[in-house]
Amino acid sequence: MIDWKTVPKTELHLHIEGAAPPDFIRMLAAEKNIDLSGSFKDDGSYVWTDFAEFLQTYERACSVLQTPDDFRRLTEAVLDVSAANGVIYTEMFLSPDFCGGGDLGAWKEYLAAMTLGAKNSKTKHGIETRFIATCIRHFGPDNAEKTAEIVAKTAGGLLTGFGQGGEERHLSAGHFARAFKIAGDAGLGLTSHAGEILGSDSVRETLDAFDVTRIGHGVRAIEDPSLVERLAAEGIVLEVCPGSNIALDVFSKWKDHPIARLRDAGVKVTVSTDDPPYFYTDMTREYRKLHETFGWSLEDFQDMNKTAMLAAFCDDDTRQRMLAKFE
Ligand code: ADE
Ligand code: ZN
Q1: Is residue 256 part of a domain?
Q2: Distance of alpha carbon 138 from alpha carbon 166, whole angstroms
Q3: What is residue 201's predicted lDDT score, i.e. its pLDDT?
Q4: Is 26 exposed, middle or buried (0-12, 13-18, 19+ CB in 10 A)?
Q5: Residue 101 within any structural domain of the chain
Q6: How far apart are CA 85 and CA 284, in angstroms?
Q7: 52 within some domain
Q8: CATH of the domain at 106
Q9: Nearest listed ligand to the Cα of residue 136
Q10: Sheet containing 87-94, strands listed edge to edge, beginning at the edge strand earlier in sequence
């Protein structure tokens, strides 16, 4: 029997706020006297029934994260869970909108605090972290451009990427092209959510509008064979989050999930958890489910982790050091 928990793992798609353990959010709510009733079920997990409600609860839970030190503590709490699940390299999505609301000076303080958290976790667990700052699609293009500007000014250190999350049904990718250009010009790696809630057109528009090397999810590309061919030919890496897709009913059962078919078609796939406590998952469970559903072996996971490290938004020394751990 393989102990999936201790198998070394790379994770490229993890939202820091979405990874917040519910107990951690309740603890901050109590400390600050904030009423979050209605946001949790009796078993303590987050309340949501569909993607729109998930985003609402997510933003409500974020209301307790009010200071840079709250985010330092969150960084360490999230990385404790990642490390316990065998993750040795992780990229976390940060949202400047929740970290000072677009003010450069405030964002610098939040970023410094999360960097300290990541460094403390590296000392504690050896886990390597990079940050991808995201704009939030339903906050609109002007906001996305302002976010990209402050992110561009703070690029470097652990902040190595720019991305976009939020409501995929809000405006097409082209509206956000300028934001991605600003971030790309600052040397940041680019990725964007697409093909999660919407179908293959959304992925195609994203590839046409932004210079991305990776797509968050991208799994609904499976609906269009010519797009699958394009993803394979262009070497676009998909940050696939199967447990998240099943929880949100993008696909109803693990056996229906297209990750194996995409991989067989030559698309570069990787595995992540997205917002693990919201979707009742962790990296150990993702690996175990993929093994049980598609028969993936340790060798398959080693290969996939190498794919992830080759697509990681990190310097080459780190890349080579991490790749060696998957040989
Ligand atoms: N933000 C956090 N999780 C997300 C998801 N699964 N899709 C889009 N935006 C998100
Ligand atoms: Zn995501």
Answers
A1: yes
A2: 6
A3: 98
A4: middle
A5: yes
A6: 6
A7: no
A8: 3.20.20.140
A9: 1
A10: 9-15, 87-94, 128-136, 159-165, 189-194, 214-217, 237-240, 268-271
**What spacing in Å lies between the alpha carbon of 313 and ligand 2's midpoint?**
16
Among 17, 76, 196, 286, which one carries the catalytic annotation?
A: 196
Structural domain count, the chain: 1
- Of the candidates 207, 291, 195, 211, the one whose C-alpha atom is nearest the C-alpha of residue 244 is 195
The answer to whether the CB of 203 falls within 8 A of the CB of 182 is no
Residue 15 near ligand 1, beta carbon < 6 Å: yes
**73 CB-near residues (< 8 Å, 6+ apart):** 24, 117
What is the amino acid identity at position 112? Answer: A
Pocket of ligand 1 contains residue 276 by CB under 6 Å: no
Ligand 1 atom nearest 197 alpha carbon: 7
Instruction: Report residues of the chain scoring pLDDT below 70.
Output: none
pLDDT attached to residue 271? 99
Q: Which domain holds residue 166?
A: 11-17+80-324
Q: Give the tens place of pLDDT for each residue, 67-77.
A: 999 999 999 99
Tell whether 86 is covered by a domain: yes
Model pLDDT, residue 157: 98
Q: Is 17 in the pocket of ligand 1 (CB under 6 A)?
A: no
As given in the structure block, the two tokens for residue 63 are: 């209301």
Task: Say whether 196 is catalytic.
Answer: yes
